[in-house]
Design goal:
Layout: H1 3-6, H2 12-22, H3 28-39, H4 49-63, E1 80-88, H5 89-99, H6 103-121, E2 128-136, E3 147-155, H7 161-177, H8 184-191, H9 196-207, E4 212-217, E5 225-226, E6 229-230, E7 245-252, E8 255-263, H10 270-285, H11 290-295, H12 301-314
Parallel strand pairs: 2-4, 4-7
Antiparallel strand pairs: 1-8, 2-3, 5-6, 7-8
Helix pairs in contact: 2-3, 3-4, 4-8, 5-6, 6-7, 6-10
GO molecular function: O-acyltransferase activity
GO biological process, one term: triglyceride biosynthetic process
Biased composition (Basic residues): 306-315
């Protein structure tokens, strides 16, 4: 008999409740508060604001049980393929400003545009896909970086890229507004009370709700050198964590260097996906004003300007 098939399905809340009942890794008072609220969510209003925010964020993270949307990206494996592309930072920034959004909006729009076109070209059109992205929740009171992992249904139906940009911008704004109560730091606080086996099981079930992951990593604002040689391009590689592919962007010296980590069993035509992503970036770049695009063509002005901004921030 298959041991995996003999394990009964346990609801996420039930699993956490049981795990916390046996856990003594946190102060008993906090443990009881979290455990009681998981038993009766109506008690949220009676506990401290910090614990309340933590529990609300945890429940929000675990309440999403809808499966991933792609009819194509259903298989997973340990086979990996790394692809890269790059686009002008100034073009993407200019396009984002012209269309009324941010650089992250441009980034996710390009990924969604490519993912939708990929499905249509392979005869499996899909209206929306679920993407994940780390969103900063850092405030002036934060001691360091603070993030929350947002999962968003992004539109992938056939539409002009500027319409997709507007839709994605609204989705991102909504995700940011609800991010503060579900930061990764708060989730990690509660997660520390739960056995690793339970966390692994919950993480796997949550990964099954996401089609692809995105991440925007801030790069160095000055040229980097390795053994005296100047680094010309700097491509990040994001973890898959059970999704079909991870597309990660890093800014470096006037360029956005993009790394795609692809599960080859999920994405059977990775070259097509990369080509479509490049086309999506080019479509967005067309919306950048001429003044923005010209910034990226200056041979010396751009690195120096970036360096001055870097040193201003560091002082």
């Amino acid at each position: 008999m298959n041991a995996a098939n003999s394990i009964p399905h346990v609801d996420a809340t039930e699993a956490l409740r049981g795990a916390m009942s046996d856990s003594m890794r946190m102060p008993l008072a906090v443990l009881r508060q979290v455990r009681d609220v998981l038993s009766d969510p109506s008690l949220i209003g009676t506990i401290g604001s910090s614990t309340s925010a933590t529990v609300k964020g945890l429940i929000a993270q675990l309440s999403e049980t809808d499966s991933a949307r792609s009819p194509l990206w259903t298989t997973r494996s340990l086979r990996r393929r790394l692809e890269t592309t790059r686009v002008s930072y100034y073009d993407m920034r200019g396009a984002a400003k012209a269309l009324g959004g941010t650089l992250n909006t441009s980034f996710i729009t390009a990924a969604a545009h490519a993912a939708g076109a990929y499905h249509r070209q392979l005869g499996a059109p899909v209206e929306s896909l679920r993407s994940s992205m780390a969103i900063s929740t850092r405030t002036s009171e934060s001691g360091g970086n603070a993030f929350t992992l947002a999962r968003m249904l992004v539109p992938t139906a056939d539409m002009p890229i500027e319409e997709r940009f507007a839709a994605v911008n609204e989705i991102l704004n909504a995700a940011r507004s609800g991010a503060a109560s579900s930061s990764l730091e708060a989730i990690a606080t509660v997660s520390s009370m739960v056995p690793t086996s339970v966390i692994t099981r919950l993480a796997r079930s949550q990964a099954e709700t996401v089609d692809f992951a995105t991440s925007n990593v801030r790069g160095a604002g000055v040229p980097l050198y390795v053994a005296g040689a100047k680094l010309l391009e700097n491509y990040p590689v994001g973890p898959l964590g059970g999704v079909a592919f991870n597309v990660t962007l890093m800014s470096y010296m006037g360029s956005l260097d993009v790394g795609l980590n692809i599960d080859e069993a999920a994405v059977e035509s990775p070259t097509l996906l990369v080509d479509l992503l490049k086309q999506s970036f080019n479509e967005l770049a067309a919306f950048a004003p001429a003044s923005e695009s010209s910034d990226s063509t200056g041979p010396a002005a751009e690195p120096g300007a970036t360096k001055r901004r870097w040193w201003r921030r560091s002082r």
